[in-house]
Structure formats: C-alpha cells, structure tokens
C-alpha cells in the first residue's frame, strides 16, 4: 500500500507515519476491513428475514384458523425466550445435519451405512462442507428466526392498532381479505410498528457480533487477532497487547451503525406518517 | 310509457326478509323485513340502541344476520346455514354486491394513508378493475360535485370533519352505486359543518338515488326521505310515508320519540 502513495505525499509524511500507514494497510488489516461485509450482510439479510418471519408470524397469530394461530403463538412466545447465542449455535448445526440426513437417505447405499456404524454423516458422500458464505446465510436465517419472533410481536400489535373503521370501510367497498390485509392493515401499521422495530433492529445489529461463533472470521475475530501482541522478524515487537484499541474501534463502529440506523428510521417514520393523525399528534 | 310495466316486473332494489341478529345473548334485531324501491329514500329512525346501525350493516353484510334473507336487485346474498356463526357463502358474489353499495359512515373512515383523490379512486381501481384515466376523471368530477375539488391532493387528516365526510360521499359515488347507505353521516360534525354535508345528501336524493339513511335529524329525514321506518328494540314499530310517520304517528312510542326529539 505504501508504494501506492504519490511520491510527494510519501515524502511529506515522514518515516514514522509511513510505517504506521503501512502497518494499517497490511494484508491482515485489509482483511479486517473487508470482513465488515460479513457483519453488514448478516445484519441486512437477517433484518429482511426477521421482517419476513415477523409478518408471517403476525399473520399467523391473527389468523382465524386455530392450528395456525396456535403455531404462530408458540413461535412468538417460545422463540422470544431463547438466548440468541444458543440458537445461533443450535440452528446452523441442526440444519446442516438435517440436510446431511436427508441427503444420506438418497445418496448412501445400505452397504455404506452398514460399513460405517455410528459415523456422521452415515457415508462420506453425504458430507456437506459449509464455507463462510453458507455459514453466513445460516447465521442470517438464525437471526431472522430469533428476531422475527420479536418482530412478529411488534407487528401483531401494530396491525391491531390500525383503526377498525378503516378496515371495515375497505370490506364494505368489496376489498378482498388479502387486499384489506396488505393495502390497509400492513400499509398503515408501520407508523405504530416502527418504534418497536427500531429496537429489534438494534438488538439484531448487536447480535451480528456473534458471527465468529460460526467460524466466520468477522470483524470481532480479526480485532482479537490483530490486537494480540505483534512481533515481526524485521521490526521486533511492533506492539504489545493492543486488543482493547481494536475493540474500541469496533465499539465506535457499532455506535456509528446505531447512529445511521436512527437516521434511517427517522426517515422511514416520516414516510410512514404521511397523512396519519398519529404522526401529526406526535410531531 | 313502459315504466309502469317495468316497475311491476322489476323486484325492489333492496329486500330484507325477517332479519334477526344477536350479539351473544343480546337480541338486537328480532325479525325485520324492509324494502326499498329504485330511487327511493328510506329513513331509519329510532332511539339509541334500537338496532338502526346493525340493520344498515346487515345490508352489505358487515354484520351477517343470524336468520333472514338479504336480496339486492333480485339477487339473494348467499349465506351459510342459520345461526350465530353464519357467514357469506360466496366470497366473489359478496364482493361484487358490496362493490355496488356505497356506504358512508358516521366517523368517515377515510383511509388515512391515501390522499383524498386516492381514497375516491381506490375501490373503482382495485375492486371494480376499471381503467385509471377514466376513474381519475370521474373521481375529480365527484370531488367537484361535493365541493372539495381543491382538496384532492390533501390527506384526510388535513381536512375538516365536514370536508372529510364530503370526501367519503365522493368515495361512495365514484363506484357508481345502485344503493347508498348512510349511518348518521352528520352526528360526528359540529352543527355549523352539518349543513354542507346535508346539502350534498339532499342533492343526491333529488337525483333519484336509492338510499337508506340512518339519522337522528328528524327535520332532515322528513325533508329528504320518502319513507320512514321507526325501529324500537329490534322491531319495526311503525313505517310509512314521511308525511304520515312524522305528521300523524299512530304508535304511542313513536309519538313519544318524536316529542322527545323536539325538546332536545
Ligand atoms: N359488534 C357488537 N357486539 C356487541 N354488541 C353490539 C355490537 N354492535 C352493536 N351492539 C349492540 O347492539 C345494540 C344495537 O346497536 P346499534 O348500533 O344497532 O344501535 P343504533 O340504533 O344504531 O344506536 P345509535 O343510535 O346509538 O347509533 C346496542 O345495544 C349495541 O350495544
Ligand atoms: Mg348507530
């Protein structure tokens, strides 16, 4: 990286600055910076999943069919109580083994299975090796399931806050049940849901710090590695235990994310509140 | 010339037959039959809790009567077997029938996330599937007619109560309804705003639209309706031409009801 600097700038910086510039742009640091993508992707994908599961869960909780309603309630009430760390460890593994089990019933021959008693997967051909991206996807879905339960709770309340008279008017004019749901209830619930959703979103962002549990080398693992006492053959001890510096950078990163999220939610609230008396009363 | 032959051949636009409705153990409607012919304005009057709103809501099945038939333009609305869990049996038919009935609510019930114009255009576009340019033109004409064309792009919350109710009437008109239902359209309005809404309704009555109107305003009912129906505890206590119902009430309850109204 240092050699990419224009000569006049390199000269002006002086040796020490150049050293630190080189240090902060070495391969490991660049890998750290680019691992931010895992965090952001997990947050965005997890957020989308949570919204999907939230809408689905809220729809089920509000359903008229008893089995559907019970299933929705079980999801919302049980998953909210599950520690996210635990679910994060449980779901991807369970999913992986579930897929392997299904694959093994197709791929593995009975002889293979008999030859490897007690082995997992039952035959080597059914082994599913997960890479970073697969883990990232599973992590996002895990986040989606856990925070979807909170989202469902928020959305369910918000759907019920939509004035009954407006729903009735839509029915009176011949709107179908799904039109009433999407065009009136879902369209109007945001103004009631956004405060709660912004809380869930911040919790979800925080949970992205767990990605390293799934063997994803994310910003947290890199910070730990880079902050550890650092020797190089040429320079000797570059720095002692600096992990707290690195973790401080992460703290600031999450503060920045929070700040940007708040801005985003403020904009969403302005959009959702157009014409709504609730928003006018709040403003 | 053939209108006489026509009117005898045509069934009345609205027929309610032996409508019963209970909420839990509370029997709100106890067997009501009512008809409204093409172009007729029927006023529903009665004291609070007598079942006027419930009866009106049974017409477009916002409430499903436990017992009895609803016939619109000769077509009976299909319903499942009688009882408290009765529902419409044919969703498509229900939507089609509803999309021909314009309802105006006491609390306006405009969709607050849509502009006034979008409120008026919503049902024609999404339920009737009509063409957008044509609907837009008609919606603007309807807003013009009720006198709030300049508010087309405003949101309902930015309008006065009287303007909101006129927007709601424009919304009802834009579906080209064959029947209009009004449930105390001016009860939520300040007295000085009532007039502008009543004027619009009067105009519609003079156009020969078929309307069922629930109202507490006896003066208005008398001047705009042709027939009045007096409900008492879920039954029709008296009905007839407005001149007779208001001018020469036979039942003692109606006499008392009208006398009480005079003092209020
Ligand atoms: N959805 C409902 N559930 C339970 N009870 C209801 C429901 N709707 C109406 N009622 C009851 O039915 C009775 C008749 O109500 P309705 O609204 O039809 O009266 P109304 O004649 O329109 O009265 P008002 O002049 O006050 O509007 C009332 O006692 C009311 O409390
Ligand atoms: Mg009423």
Automatic annotation (TrEMBL), chain A:
It is a multi-pass membrane protein. InterPro entries: ABC_transp_permease_HisMQ, MetI-like, MetI-like_sf. Its main location: membrane. Gene3D superfamilies: MetI-like (1.10.3720.10). One of its GO terms (cellular component) is plasma membrane. GO terms for biological process: transmembrane transport. Residues 36-261 form the ABC transmembrane type-1 domain. Signal peptide: none annotated. SUPFAM superfamilies: MetI-like. PROSITE patterns: ABC_TM1 (PS50928). It holds the Pfam family BPD_transp_1. Keywords: Membrane, Transmembrane, Transmembrane helix, Transport. It is found in: Cell membrane. The chain crosses the membrane at residues 38-62, 74-95, 135-155, 191-224, 244-261. Belongs to the binding-protein-dependent transport system permease family. This is Amino acid ABC transporter membrane protein 1, PAAT family (TC 3.A.1.3.-). It comes from Devosia enhydra. The lineage of its organism: Bacteria, Pseudomonadati, Pseudomonadota, Alphaproteobacteria, Hyphomicrobiales.
TrEMBL record, chain B:
InterPro entries: AAA+_ATPase (IPR003593), ABC_ATPase_HisP-typ (IPR030679), ABC_transporter-like_ATP-bd (IPR003439), ABC_transporter-like_CS (IPR017871), MetN_ABC_transporter-like (IPR050086), P-loop_NTPase (IPR027417). SMART domains: AAA (SM00382). GO terms for molecular function: ABC-type amino acid transporter activity; ATP binding; ATP hydrolysis activity. CDD domains: ABC_HisP_GlnQ. The keyword Nucleotide-binding applies. Residues 14-258 form the ABC transporter domain. Keywords: ATP-binding, Nucleotide-binding, Transport. The keyword Secreted does not apply. Belongs to the ABC transporter superfamily. This is Amino acid ABC transporter ATP-binding protein, PAAT family. It comes from Devosia enhydra.
């Amino acid at each position: 990286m240092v050699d990419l600097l224009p000569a006049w700038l390199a000269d002006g910086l002086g040796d020490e600055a150049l050293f630190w510039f080189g240090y902060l742009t070495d391969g490991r640091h660049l890998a750290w910076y680019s691992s931010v993508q895992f965090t952001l992707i997990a947050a965005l994908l997890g957020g989308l999943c949570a919204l999907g599961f939230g809408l689905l869960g809220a729809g089920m909780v509000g359903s008229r069919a008893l089995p559907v309603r019970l299933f929705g309630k079980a999801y919302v009430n049980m998953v909210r109580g599950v520690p996210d760390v635990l679910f994060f460890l449980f779901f991807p593994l369970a999913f992986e083994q579930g897929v392997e089990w299904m694959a093994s019933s197709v791929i593995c021959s009975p002889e293979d299975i008999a030859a490897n008693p007690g082995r997992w997967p039952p035959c080597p051909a059914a082994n599913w090796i997960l890479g970073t991206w697969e883990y990232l996807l599973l992590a996002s879905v895990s986040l989606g399931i856990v925070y979807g339960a909170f989202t469902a709770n928020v959305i369910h309340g918000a759907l019920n806050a939509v004035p009954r008279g407006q729903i009735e008017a839509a029915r009176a004019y011949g709107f179908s049940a799904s039109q009433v749901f999407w065009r009136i209830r879902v369209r109007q619930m945001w103004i009631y849901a956004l405060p709660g959703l912004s809380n869930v979103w911040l919790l979800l962002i925080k949970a992205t710090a767990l990605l390293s549990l799934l063997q994803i080398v994310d910003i947290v693992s890199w910070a730990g590695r880079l902050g550890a006492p650092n020797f190089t053959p040429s320079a000797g001890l570059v720095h002692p235990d600096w992990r707290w510096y690195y973790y401080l950078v992460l703290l600031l990163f999450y503060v920045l994310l929070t700040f940007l999220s708040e801005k985003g939610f403020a904009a969403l609230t302005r959009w959702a509140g157009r014409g709504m008396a609730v928003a006018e009363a709040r403003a | 010339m053939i209108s006489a032959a026509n009117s005898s051949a045509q069934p009345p636009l609205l027929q309610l037959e032996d409508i019963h409705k209970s909420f839990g153990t509370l029997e709100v409607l106890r067997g009501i039959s009512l008809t409204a012919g093409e172009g007729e304005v029927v006023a529903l009057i009665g004291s609070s809790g007598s079942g006027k709103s419930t009866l009106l809501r049974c017409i477009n099945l916002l409430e499903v009567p436990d017992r009895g038939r609803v016939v619109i333009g000769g077509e009976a609305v299909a319903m499942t077997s009688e009882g408290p869990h009765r529902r419409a049996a044919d969703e498509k038919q229900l939507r089609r029938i509803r999309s021909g009935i314009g309802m105006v609510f006491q609390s306006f019930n405009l969709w607050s996330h849509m502009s006034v114009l979008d409120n008026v255009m919503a049902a024609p576009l999404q339920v009737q599937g009509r063409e957008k340019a044509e609907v837009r033109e008609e919606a603007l004409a309807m807003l013009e007619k009720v006198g709030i064309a300049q508010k087309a792009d405003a949101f309902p919350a930015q309008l006065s109560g009287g303007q909101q109710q006129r927007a709601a009437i424009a919304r009802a008109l834009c579906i080209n309804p064959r029947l209009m239902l009004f449930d105390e359209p001016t009860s939520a309005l300040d007295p000085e705003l009532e007039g502008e809404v009543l004027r619009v309704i009067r105009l519609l009555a003079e156009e020969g639209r078929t309307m069922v109107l629930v109202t507490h305003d006896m003066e208005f009912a008398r001047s705009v309706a042709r027939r009045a129906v007096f409900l008492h505890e879920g039954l029709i206590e008296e009905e007839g031409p407005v001149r007779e119902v208001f001018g020469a009430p036979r039942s003692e309850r109606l006499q008392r009801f009208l006398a009480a109204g005079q003092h209020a």
